[in-house]
Specification:
The chain is of the alpha/beta class and 571 residues long. The protein has three domains: 209 residues, no CATH class; 161 residues, 3-Layer(aba) Sandwich (Rossmann fold), CATH 3.40.50; 169 residues, 3-Layer(aba) Sandwich (Aminopeptidase). Helix content is 31%, strand content 21%. The chain contains 21 helices and 20 strands. Strands 3-2-1-4-5-6-7 form a seven-stranded parallel β-sheet, sandwiched between helices. Strands 14-15-16-17-18-20-19 form a seven-stranded mixed β-sheet, sandwiched between helices. The protein is globular and about 75 Å long. The two termini are 30 Å apart.
Length: 571
C-alpha cells in the first residue's frame, strides 16, 4: 500500500498529567506524537487528568485531546479508552456520545490542521508504508500507554480488542505484561530488564537510544562542549512538585554557595507553591518562570542545571549541560543510579527531604565552581543522540532501515568501512586512508551545509550498517550520491534499500532536480542496485582519470512535499 496522508492511520496515546502524576508522561508522549506526525499520521491523546494549560499545548501541536471520566488503569478506563479508539475508527470525528466520556466534553483540537502540510512536514527520516493488520487491508492502529497504573489486566483488556499496544515503563511497574512492544528509555535498560510478556514476539525497545525528544530540542541543538564555573543556574523539579522540593533546593544552594548566582526556577503549570518560591530570599538572584514553553532557550541561557531524576535529564544531557540531580520519586532511582553511580555523569544530591540532601553543601559548592572536577564531561556528553522518538516510530511501522544524522562519534566506524578492501577496490582512489586524513575530511563534511550525511541503521536492532551521503553542487544544480555498506551487512539487500529510500528522502528535503551517481564500470552490483532504485545511465565521464558511468535520478518525477525547517539548512 502506498503511503500518503490520505490513508495514514491514527496513533492513540493514553496518558495523564497533574498533581503527584507530574507532567513527564504527557510531555514525552508529545515527542512520540511529533515523530508520528512527521510521518503524516494523526495523534489523539486520551486523558483522565490533564491541566488545561497542557491540553492547550497539545492542541497547539496539532494533536486531538479527548478526556475520559474513569479511574486511571481501571477496567472502566480500558472500556472508555477503547470507546474513543473505536469511535474514531468508525467516523471521521471521534465519538463523544459514550457514557464513559466526561459529560459535556467535546474533543479538543478538531480543525487544528492535523494531517495538513503545515502541521505534518516530512521527517528527517524516510517515509514508508504503514503496517497492515494480518488478513486486512486497513492500517494497523497503535495505542500507546504511559503511566504506572496500566497493569496486566488493563493490557489484557486492550489486547482483547485487537489493537496493537505499546507500554512505556521506567522501573518494571508490572510483574507481567501483555503488549506488542515495551519502551523503556532509561540508561542500561537493555541490560537490567527482562520482561515477562504474554505476547511472545513482542518488541523490546530498551535503552538510551530510544530516549524521546521533542522537536523544539532537535531543531535548536546547541551543544555546550566546555564546562566552566557555573554563574547561571536552572532549577527544574517537575511540572507539579507538590512537596516543594524546589524550595528545599533553594535553601541548600543558599547554604552551599556563598558566591551569588543567577538562578532561574522553572516551575510547572501545576505547581502550587509559586508565591512561596517568588518571595524566597537569598544572596542569589532568583527568577521564577512558570510553564516555560521555550525550554531550548532556557538551557542555552544556563551554565548548569539542577533537575529531578526524570526524563528532563535526557534534555540537558543532550544539550551538553553539567547537571546535579534531586531525587523526588521512587521511579527516578534507575536514572539516578545510571547517571551518577555507574557513569559519574552528574552530581547526586539525594532525596530532597533526607539528611543526605542537607549534607551536600561541600559537593554542591565544588560542582558549582568546577563541575568537571566532580562529574565526567565525556560520559555526560556521549549518552544521548536525540533520535529515540523516530526509532520508536520506525519500529512501530516495521521499517527496514532508519536514517539518522551523522555525528563526530561516527568517525571511527566510517573510517573502517572506507578502508574495507572491496570499498577501496571500487573507489576512484584505491589507496588506504589514514585516520587523521579521514577525521579532517569527516569534520569538514559535518560542517558543510552542502553535504547531507545519514548513518543507516537496521530497523530491528538499530545497529549502524552503512552510510549515504549527498553533496550538493549549487551552480550545476544537482547533487552527487555516495554510499557504503558495512562489510558485515552486505548481501542483505541494504544497499538497494539505502539508495532508494535515501534518494527519496533527500529529494523531499532539498530543492535539487537531479541526483548523479558515478560508478566504476566493473562495479556491476552497484550499477544494478542504482538501476533498480530508479537511476538511469546517462553516459560515461572521467573521474580522477578513470572511466565512470554516470547514472541520474530525476527528482521531478517523484512527488514533492514541503520541507521542515530542520532540513532546510541542507539545501
Amino acid at each position: 500500500m502506498k503511503y500518503s496522508k490520505k490513508n495514514a492511520c491514527s496513533l492513540f496515546v493514553r496518558a495523564d498529567a497533574g498533581g503527584f502524576t507530574g507532567t513527564g508522561h504527557v510531555m514525552r508522549m508529545l515527542a512520540l506524537a511529533q515523530a508520528y506526525q512527521r510521518r503524516g499520521g494523526k495523534v489523539t491523546f486520551i486523558c483522565a487528568q490533564l491541566p488545561d494549560t497542557l491540553e492547550e499545548r497539545l492542541v497547539q501541536e496539532g494533536c486531538e485531546v479527548i478526556r475520559i471520566a474513569a479511574k486511571s488503569g481501571s477496567q472502566e478506563d480500558a472500556r472508555a479508552t477503547l470507546a474513543v479508539v473505536q469511535g474514531a475508527g468508525s467516523s471521521s470525528q471521534p465519538s463523544t456520545s459514550s457514557a464513559s466520556l466526561r459529560e459535556g466534553t467535546r474533543p479538543r483540537g478538531q480543525g487544528a490542521g492535523v494531517g495538513s502540510e503545515e502541521q505534518n512536514p516530512p521527517s528527517s527520516i524516510h517515509h514508508s508504508p504503514l503496517p497492515l493488520d494480518k488478513d486486512s487491508t486497513t492500517p494497523n492502529t497503535w495505542l500507546v500507554v504511559d503511566g504506572y497504573h496500566f497493569g496486566f489486566d488493563y493490557q489484557k483488556a486492550i489486547k482483547a480488542s485487537g489493537l496493537s499496544l505499546l507500554c512505556t515503563d521506567d522501573f518494571g511497574y508490572s510483574e507481567r505484561w501483555c503488549c506488542d512492544a515495551i519502551l523503556n528509555q532509561n540508561l542500561d535498560a537493555e541490560k537490567s530488564f527482562i520482561y515477562d510478556n504474554e505476547i511472545a514476539d513482542s518488541q523490546a525497545l530498551l535503552g538510551a537510544s530510544f530516549c524521546l525528544f521533542r522537536e523544539e530540542f532537535l531543531e535548536e541543538k546547541e551543544i555546550s562542549s566546555e564546562w566552566g564555573a557555573i554563574h547561571r543556574l536552572l532549577i527544574t523539579l517537575g511540572g507539579s512538585d507538590p512537596e516543594n522540593a524546589t524550595e528545599a533546593t533553594l535553601r541548600l544552594l543558599t547554604q552551599a554557595c556563598e558566591r551569588p548566582l543567577e538562578i532561574r526556577v522553572l516551575a510547572g503549570a501545576d505547581n502550587p507553591h509559586i508565591e512561596s518560591l517568588r518571595t524566597f530570599t537569598s544572596q542569589h538572584s532568583i527568577e521564577v518562570i512558570q510553564n516555560a514553553r521555550n525550554m531550548p532557550e532556557q538551557y542555552a541561557w544556563a551554565d548548569g542545571i539542577i533537575s529531578a531524576g526524570g526524563s528532563t535529564c535526557w534534555e540537558w544531557l543532550y544539550l551538553g549541560l553539567p547537571g546535579a540531580i534531586v531525587t523526588i520519586a521512587d521511579n527516578q532511582l534507575p536514572i539516578v543510579h545510571a547517571l551518577t553511580e555507574e557513569r559519574k555523569a552528574a552530581l547526586p544530591l539525594g532525596w530532597f527531604n533526607s539528611d543526605e540532601f542537607k549534607d551536600k553543601n561541600t559537593q554542591l559548592s565544588a560542582w558549582a565552581d568546577d563541575p568537571g572536577s566532580v562529574c565526567c564531561r565525556d560520559q555526560a556528553q556521549s549518552l544521548i543522540d536525540g533520535n529515540g522518538a523516530d526509532r520508536v516510530i520506525t519500529s512501530l511501522l516495521l521499517d527496514r532501515l532508519f536514517f539518522r544524522r551523522a555525528c563526530i562519534a561516527d568517525v571511527n566506524k566510517t573510517w573502517e568501512w572506507a578502508n574495507d578492501s572491496l570499498s577501496r577496490k571500487m573507489s576512484f582512489t584505491q589507496n588506504e586512508i589514514e585516520f587523521q586524513e579521514h577525521l579532517t575530511w569527516w569534520t569538514k563534511q559535518l560542517a558543510n551545509c552542502c553535504s547531507w550525511i545519514r548513518i543507516i541503521e537496521d530497523g530491528d536492532h538499530f545497529e549502524p550498517c552503512g552510510i549515504v551521503r549527498f553533496e550538493l553542487f549549487k551552480t550545476e544544480g544537482y547533487a552527487v550520491i555516495s554510499i557504503n555498506i558495512d562489510p558485515n551487512a552486505r548481501g542483505k539487500g541494504y544497499g538497494l534499500s539505502a539508495i532508494s529510500e535515501g534518494t527519496k528522502l533527500y529529494g523531499l528535503c532539498s530543492s535539487v532536480s537531479k541526483i548523479h551517481a558515478y560508478i566504476r564500470p566493473k562495479n556491476l552490483a552497484s550499477l544494478k542496485a542504482f538501476e533498480k532504485a530508479g537511476y538511469h545511465i546517462a553516459g560515461t565521464e572521467q573521474i580522477k582519470s578513470q572511466d565512470a558511468i554516470c547514472m541520474i535520478f530525476d527528482c521531478l518525477d517523484t512527488p514533492q512535499t514541503p520541507v521542515t525547517s530542520e532540513e532546510k539548512r541542507y539545501e
